[in-house]
């Protein structure tokens, strides 16, 4: 349980004049939920895009188990076992929730019927079976977020990167997603990195929290330590 599954080493990202990630280093321990916080523009999504090679870093190494994955194509990284919600896992609005999940399932299933069966099971895991025949574009926001997670899970990831999937949801919907994220972590063995603005939510499920600011790691630690960290309070929570 205490081995790193992902190790980010001195990762730098630059966009013309902007130094978006500055020698970012940290480890994701196998089996943990690592929360990621930081003000808008801190580089959180850029970090995820670097990990899955949507925008590879300009320097540094990203170790997935024993392998440096920098430079590998995104689909190869997905095959190795790292999935990300939102950008890489696009929801098709004009398809039903069931078909959205089945299409994702086809990437790994041995047959169409196996993909359908896997999709049905996944829809049930996320409480979406009642919405299976609804077009994705007609789903309420909370169910659309759940659908993104269901689709990402069809890649059978060992590591799942979740980028602000709770944005715009009410407290009950947030708690529902939190419960299910904890279940994929505990019952299905997926290590998680979760970017989230809702600190209350993140504190509840994270074993550790990484705080980013202006592309640099401010601190990594237990939620209660990070929430007391002076620079985190200044940068993120606002000085009180
Ligand atoms: N592909 C890109 N091209 C140019 N600038 C980018 C690109 N992606 C992100 N940025 C910039 O990098 C900074 C960090 O962005 P982002 O990682 O999206 O922040 P966060 O997710 O923490 O809110 C921002 O200033 C953003 O405008
Ligand atoms: Mg972002």
What does this structure look like?
The mean pLDDT is 93. Helices cover 37% and strands 26% of the residues. With 240 residues, it is α/β, with parallel strands linked by helices. Helix 3 packs parallel to helix 5 (141-153). It is globular. The protein folds into 2 domains: 4-88 and 155-237, P-loop containing nucleotide triphosphate hydrolases (Rossmann fold), CATH 3.40.50; 90-154, no CATH class. Strand 7 (159-163), helix 6 (171-186) and strand 8 (191-195) form a beta-alpha-beta unit. The strands form 2 sheets. A 6-stranded mixed sheet has the order 6-7-8-3-9-10, sandwiched between helices. The protein has a 4-stranded antiparallel sheet with strand order 2-1-4-5, covered by helices on one side. Adenosine-5'-diphosphate binds at residues 15, 18, 20, 38, 40-46, 55.
CATH superfamily of the largest domain: P-loop containing nucleotide triphosphate hydrolases
According to CATH, the fold-level topology of the largest domain is Rossmann fold
Unreliable parts: none
Rg for CA atoms: 18 Å
Helix/strand/pairing category: alpha/beta
What is the quaternary state of this protein? single chain
Q: For the report, how would you describe the main beta sheet?
A: 6 strands, mixed
The number of helical segments is 9
What letter string, H or E per element, gives the SSE order? EEEHEEHEHHHEHEHEEHH
Query: Which geometry do the CA atoms define?
Result: globular
Q: Tally the beta strands.
A: 10
The domain tally reads: 2
